[in-house]
Description:
Blueprint: E1 12-13, E2 16-17, H1 19-55, H2 61-94, H3 103-119, H4 122-127, H5 129-139
Antiparallel strand pairs: 1-2
Amino acid sequence: MEDVIYVGAYYFYNNRPNWSNITTMLILQTILIISLLTIIILCLKIHSKIKQLRENEGESEYSKKLQKQFYKALVFQTILPIFLMLVPLNLFFFLPITGIDVTYYSQIANFTCVIYPALDPLPNILIIDEYRKAFLSHFLFWRKNRIEPANLTNLDTNNK
């Protein structure tokens, strides 16, 4: 295994289709399409439910704002793996059957899959106000501390 630098499927062997690998690729494509459809359907259902919750008059503005932020973060956390893992890997397995060379594309697919775990928490940190404020206050230590005046209500300690 030390000499293996590329792993792939033989879709054609001696100019004849290798039906077991082609069938496996088609099953993989079907699973990916089903997962994408499931994501789309569930996002639409969540959107309609949150829309109903936002129209509810009993909730506070803070709660409505927080629900909207959670929904946006959920959408971005759903889009991220689709474009960084599902689409690149899907193309990586699909393009060779069409005869397209994926030598350079495989490096892009590897990079996007490797960088995904580092980018995954960013939508929550950047979209949700409380998380963003905590993150910025903790990690922006190079900012100058703001100097605020002292409370001037009772500075005379001699008068009693």
